[in-house]
Amino acid sequence: MTSPVFTLHVPADPEFRSIASEMIGRYVDIAGGTESDRLAFEAALTKTVDAMCTNANGDVELSCVPLATGFEIRLTCNGQTSVLRHPLTAEKR
């Protein structure tokens, strides 16, 4: 198993959830994604986090793991786990 590039913990409170999508959006930029890639991935992340964190208790944990074809974000909140993958074209890997 590959080690995460980074792990981020933010409060599950809706006021703080945007920090997670902004951070992951910046990573998409750094990894070579386009603006439309970033916006689409941020929207998918926000939707997933909102569905997982139906209350403001606890934290959201996001781990960014590099893959041969891009990266994935592993999300954990309230005992639930989800994975979002972002592919990168060969020249951006």
Question: What's a quick, concise take on this entry?
Answer:
With 93 residues, the protein is α+β, with helices and mostly antiparallel strands.
Defining traits:
93 residues, alpha+beta, four-stranded antiparallel beta sheet, 2 helices, 4 strands, 33% strand, globular
Name the strands of the widest sheet in spatial order.
Answer: 1-2-3-4
Q: What does the radius of gyration come to?
A: 13 Å
Largest sheet: 4 strands, antiparallel
Gross geometry = globular
Kindly, what is the distance between the CA atoms of the first and last residues, rounded to a whole number of angstroms? 19 Å
Mean pLDDT: 87
The unreliable regions are none
Q: Find the structural class using helix and strand composition.
A: alpha+beta
Strand content: 25-35%
> What share of residues is helical?
25-40%
Q: In sequence order, what are the helices and strands, one letter per element?
A: EHHEEE
Number of helices: 2
Strand tally? 4
Structural write-up:
The protein is of the alpha+beta class and 93 residues long. Helices cover 38% and strands 33% of the residues. The protein has two helices and four strands. It has a four-stranded antiparallel beta sheet with strand order 1-2-3-4, covered by helices on one side. Strand 2 and strand 3 form a beta hairpin. Helix 1 runs antiparallel to helix 2. The longest helix is centred in the middle third of the chain and has 18 residues. The radius of gyration is 13 Å and the shape is globular. The mean pLDDT is 87.
